[in-house]
Structure formats: C-alpha cells, structure tokens
Design a protein that fits this description.
The chain is an alpha+beta fold. It has seven helices and four strands. It is 72% helix and 9% strand. Strand 2 and strand 3 form a beta hairpin.
C-alpha cells in the first residue's frame, strides 16, 4: 500500500502543494489587509473559513479523481495486489490532504488570535473530553465520507455505459438517506458520537458555545455500530467490484 501511496503522491504533490501555497498567500493577504484596514472580524473570519473549505473540497475532489483514474488504469489493475491496498492508499492520501489543510488553518488561527489578542475561550469552551471528542468525531466522519464517496465511484465505474457517474451519485445519496433513516428509526439520536464518546453542545452565552463530551455505552451498540456496519459493507462491496473488474 505504501508503494501505491508514494506513486499517487508523486503524481499529485505538485498540484496539492501549489494549491496549498496559493491558499497560504491568499489567507495571509486577507488577514493582513483586514487588520490594516480595520475590517470587522465578522467579515474576515467567515471569508477565511470559506477559503479553507473551498480548498479542502478542491483537494478532496483531486484525491477522488486520482482514485477514479486508478480504477480505469489497465496497468494498475494488472498489479498483483489486493484491492484494499489501492483503497487504503486513496484513503491515506485524503487524510494527508486533510491534515495539511487543518495544520495550516490551525497555525493561521493561532497567529491571527495572538496578533489581534483574541481569546478563543470567550467564544468556544471545551469541557471534559471536548477536544478529544471533536478530533475523533472529525476523523471518523471524514473517513466514513471518504469510503462512501469512493464506493460510489467504484459502483459508477462498474457500469460500462454513458453517464454512469449519475449511477454513482444516486447510489451515494441512497446510502446516506438509508443510513439517516435507519439511524433515526432505531436510535433517534441527535448527538454526534465516536464509539462510547458522545459530543454535545450548549449555548454558553452571547455569540459563544460550550462543547463537552461524556461516556455513553449506548453509542457503542447504537449509531456508531450502525455506521461501522455500513462502512464495512461499503468496503466489502468495493473489494468485490474491483476484483470483478480485474477478472474482466
């Protein structure tokens, strides 16, 4: 898997790194201009967040296109490797992109808050395992989304017809709708969760929020287990379809 990851990274690193360099320049220009011209933080911060989201989406789409290209590549299919290695390489590449964008955003926010003397605790308060829950929930949600999208791409490429991409799109939304429906039907949970850790938020005051977490064993046999089953099922489906494609 590491060899596949290195190969995918060599093909993608120029585009990824150049996009991140442009992001850093634009975000720095926005922050400096906003500070010098005394722009309201209500304007600067949302624009900055929007920039990070757009770049993250662009790079994520790039990772998906890399996976799609690997599926269509005849030489890649001839490699005597289990399909899970190719899937794992694409997942790790998506993780790398996410980590890089998150690291840049974190450094940017720290510098911005120090320069303008902004106290984050006035706006967001973490209680208990709040930080831990936010990180784990983010990792799991992102990974589950990656697998769902890669599975949709795999399903679409399994049909040799025109506009097969629409089949993948319909499959993706069908799976997500089913997951939401069955989760609401069985558990009716409104909290985010990771394993036995539940994440909840409350208003801590004007323009502020408090994030906390608690251990809840019900989640282990509830929504998280359901998500785990659906994700594992999608992985199994991808492996089956990729194996069939190799046989063809």
């Amino acid at each position: 898997m590491m060899k596949l990851l290195k190969y995918d990274w060599k093909r993608s690193n120029d585009g990824i790194l150049s996009t991140l360099a442009i992001l850093i320049i634009l975000e720095a220009a926005l922050s400096i201009t906003g500070s010098l011209r005394n722009w309201d933080e209500v304007l600067v911060i949302p624009l900055s967040i929007f920039g990070y989201i757009m770049v993250m989406l662009m790079l994520f789409i790039h990772c998906c296109k890399t996976f799609d290209g690997n599926i269509k590549s005849f030489s890649r299919r001839l490699l005597p490797l289990h399909p899970i290695q190719g899937i794992g390489a694409s997942i790790v590449l998506s993780w790398i992109v996410w980590i890089l964008v998150t690291a840049i955003a974190a450094i940017h926010f720290l510098l911005y808050s120090v320069f303008l003397d902004i106290n984050i605790s006035e706006y967001v308060e973490f209680t208990g395992w709040g930080w831990f829950s936010v990180i784990l929930t983010g990792i799991w949600s992102y990974t589950a989304a990656i697998i769902a999208i890669l599975a949709s791409i795999t399903v679409a490429r399994s049909f040799r017809i025109k506009r097969s991409a629409w089949i993948g799109i319909v499959f993706f939304f069908a799976v997500q709708s089913f997951a939401v429906w069955i989760d609401h039907l069985l558990f009716n949970q409104d909290e985010s969760s990771f394993g036995i850790i539940s994440l909840n938020s409350t208003d801590a005051g004007l323009n502020s929020i408090s994030l906390g977490s608690s251990f809840n064993t019900d989640f282990l046999f509830g929504p998280f287990l359901l998500d785990l089953v659906i994700t594992a099922s999608l992985l199994t489906l991808m492996i089956y379809l990729l194996n069939k494609k190799v046989e063809l």
